């Protein structure tokens, strides 16, 4: 697509979003990046303190569930493109509070699509793009073999996965019905710096550090394909600039681990880094009742993005997991602020709807 002047990145204060915002702000000074985030518990502007004063960056606090707000936002700023990352994303929370996921992930996506349609229809959808980032969980669960491809049928098993599947279908429907240029990518499990410590890897690191139990669902046999967040951001960059409207691209780390094996690896590395006797952290492992409807295995076939856009993960898993652990160990204040909730107090008075 033509280089866009104004790019809206939704959910840009979140884990993946903050990495994408930073990459685009630093790499493309001729773009102006607008970061729209509601600042829920998972949105943390401390993730972007190295970016917030850049001339080509603007933060906007707002809720995509508010259709009036999104309409006014698009009318005022006249964005050339959208990279849509805003979402409720934690499966456990979706089981307890599914309506939050339906509102944000489905209604919020439709509001963005409608606002984009109304604005971009003026230019007959030329030189614009709606890029929707989704998850491999829309495909359901795999057995011991096989990989998800872009042609895999949808079979979501949790309220979170169902809400993301719905948003995927809506983006495709708006592309085919109204002609909005749109691309979708579905990624595997992300890990890396700045991830909220409710997720497996940062939760395990933080609990090991504080000698707390390490909860593992069931027997820990569930398998996930792990993708380093900076690799994901580089893939998003490529899809945004070189992806073909109407297409879907699967982004995976080609890096499958059983949950229990991953936790044991983290224990071993942490023991060495914290000068503890080998096996100390592993003694904290506590098996807990399995999550309802817990999918057995996810794994992505990323050959399409490899072949068409020349993307591959950079570095190895061991290298990236060590970098991740080192980041959390050297950012103790970030962890303390996030686990205590103090990170929200720092910003709550600074931003309002614009």
Distance between the termini: 28 Å
CATH architecture label of the domain at 6-191 and 227-256 and 294-318 = 3-Layer(aba) Sandwich
The third-level CATH topology of the domain at 6-191 and 227-256 and 294-318 is: Rossmann fold
Average predicted local confidence, pLDDT:
93
SSE-based structural type = alpha/beta
Name the CATH superfamily assignment of the domain at 6-191 and 227-256 and 294-318: NAD(P)-binding Rossmann-like Domain
What is the CATH domain class of the domain at 6-191 and 227-256 and 294-318? Alpha Beta
DSSP summary: helix tally: 12
The dominant shape is: globular
* Helix proportion: 40-55%
Task: Please report which band the strand proportion falls in: under 5%, 5-15%, 15-25%, 25-35%, 35-45% or over 45%.
Answer: 15-25%
Poorly predicted runs of 5 or more residues: none
Descriptive keywords:
354 residues, alpha/beta, Rossmann fold, seven-stranded parallel beta sheet, three-stranded mixed beta sheet, 12 helices, 42% helix, 16% strand, globular
Kindly describe this structure.
By secondary structure, the protein is α/β, with parallel strands linked by helices. It has a domain at 6-191 and 227-256 and 294-318: 3-Layer(aba) Sandwich (Rossmann fold). Helices cover 42% and strands 16% of the residues. It contains 12 helices and 12 strands. It has helices at residues 15-27, 67-77, 91-96, 98-120, 159-178, 200-209, 229-242, 259-273, 303-309, 317-330, 332-340, 342-347, and strands at residues 6-10, 32-37, 57-61, 81-84, 129-135, 182-187, 189-191, 214-217, 223-228, 248-251, 256-258, 285-288. A 7-stranded parallel beta sheet has the order 3-2-1-4-5-6-10, sandwiched between helices. A 3-stranded mixed beta sheet has the order 7-9-11. It has a two-stranded parallel sheet with strand order 8-12. Strand 5, helix 5 and strand 6 form a beta-alpha-beta unit. Helix 1 (15-27) crosses helix 7 (229-242) and helix 6 (200-209) runs parallel beside helix 8. The mean pLDDT is 93.
């Amino acid at each position: 697509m033509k280089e866009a002047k104004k790019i809206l990145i939704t959910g840009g204060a979140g884990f993946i979003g903050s990495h994408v915002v930073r990459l685009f702000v630093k790499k493309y000074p001729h773009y102006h990046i607008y970061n729209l985030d509601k600042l829920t518990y998972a949105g943390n502007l401390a993730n972007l303190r190295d970016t917030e004063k850049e001339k080509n960056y603007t933060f906007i606090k707002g809720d995509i569930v508010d259709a009036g707000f999104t309409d006014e936002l698009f009318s005022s700023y006249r964005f050339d493109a959208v990279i849509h990352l805003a979402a409720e994303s934690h499966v456990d929370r979706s089981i307890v509070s599914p309506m939050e996921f339906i509102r944000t992930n489905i209604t919020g996506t439709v509001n963005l699509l409608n606002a984009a349609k109304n604005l971009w229809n003026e230019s007959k959808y030329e030189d614009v793009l709606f890029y929707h980032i989704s998850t491999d969980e829309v495909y359901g669960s795999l057995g011991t073999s096989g990989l998800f491809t872009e042609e895999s049928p949808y079979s979501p098993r949790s309220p979170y996965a169902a809400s993301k599947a719905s948003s995927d279908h809506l983006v495709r429907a708006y592309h085919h019905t109204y002609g909005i240029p749109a691309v979708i990518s579905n990624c595997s499990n992300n890990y890396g710096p700045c991830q909220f410590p409710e997720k497996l890897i940062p939760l395990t690191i933080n609990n090991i550090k504080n000698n707390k139990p390490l909860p593992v669902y069931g027997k820990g046999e569930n398998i996930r394909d792990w993708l380093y967040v900076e690799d994901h951001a580089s893939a998003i960059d490529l899809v945004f600039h070189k992806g073909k409207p109407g297409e879907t691209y699967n982004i995976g780390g080609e890096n499958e681990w059983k949950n229990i094996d991953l936790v044991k690896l983290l224990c071993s590395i942490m023991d060495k880094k914290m000068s503890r006797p080998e096996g100390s952290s592993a003694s904290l492992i506590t098996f807990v009742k399995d999550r309802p409807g817990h999918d057995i295995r996810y794994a992505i076939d990323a050959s399409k993005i490899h072949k068409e856009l020349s993307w591959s993960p950079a570095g190895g898993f061991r290298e990236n997991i060590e970098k991740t652990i080192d980041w959390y160990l050297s950012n103790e204040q970030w962890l303390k602020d996030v686990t205590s909730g103090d990170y929200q107090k720092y910003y709550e008075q600074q931003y309002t709807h614009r």
